[in-house]
Design a protein that fits this description.
Elements (H helix, E strand, L loop, with lengths): L1 H21 L5 H10 L3 H37 L3 H21 L25 H9 L11 H13 L7 H6 L4 H28 L8 H26 L1
Length: 239
Amino acid sequence: MQSPILTTVAVTGFTVAFLHAAIPTHWLPFVLVARARGWGRTKAIAVLALAALGHVGLMSLIGLAIAWLGFQLDERIGRLFPWIAGGLLLAFAGYYAFRQWTGRGICHHNPPGSHHHADEHCGEAHARSHWHEELEGSPLVSRSAGDWTAVAGLFVMLTLSPCEGFLPIYLSGVHFGWRGFILLSGILAVATFVAMTLFTWLALVGFDKFRLNRFERYEAAMLATLFGILGVLIIVLER
């Protein structure tokens, strides 16, 4: 039964990581900064890839800690671990469902130097104008500041905006040992790079009239659904 479970975890992990990276907060700032500074597409994508590397690297380190703790727990409780992992996934599903129901959603970091709190714009329908406002006068777009200032700012912004929704995925993969951890880390990296590169490139070539801010508005609901299904499957299939 491990193969169906691992496949389910892998597919769910890719979906969570891709949808998270598709949110405008993860690629729109790169597009706006590139346009303001006159960067070409190649340079913009290169800066994006560097920032995505920091984003994925931090998530992998957190995942490593979760995996190590999970391995210790799995050795001690054995067959009970899938029940605990499934129960925790259902608890996460309930948490995200509650956030969606109360209108809180999931808030992501604003750019460095922003004067607003994340919750002021969480789920806002006008993400594009919001980011224009936030970046106006910022060192990220100011020509008086060097390109490395913008690169460093974008790197820090994305690195400090971890994909919290992927952490339960790491937890659900503990039962598969280091093989599961490596597979899930690879899936996280691929899904993140593909989504961010795809939407950045599309915006840079002019196809930038997306409604992807709806992903941010309903990200909590999608995570609640995915974690609920995954938690039930882990408990049922392992039993």
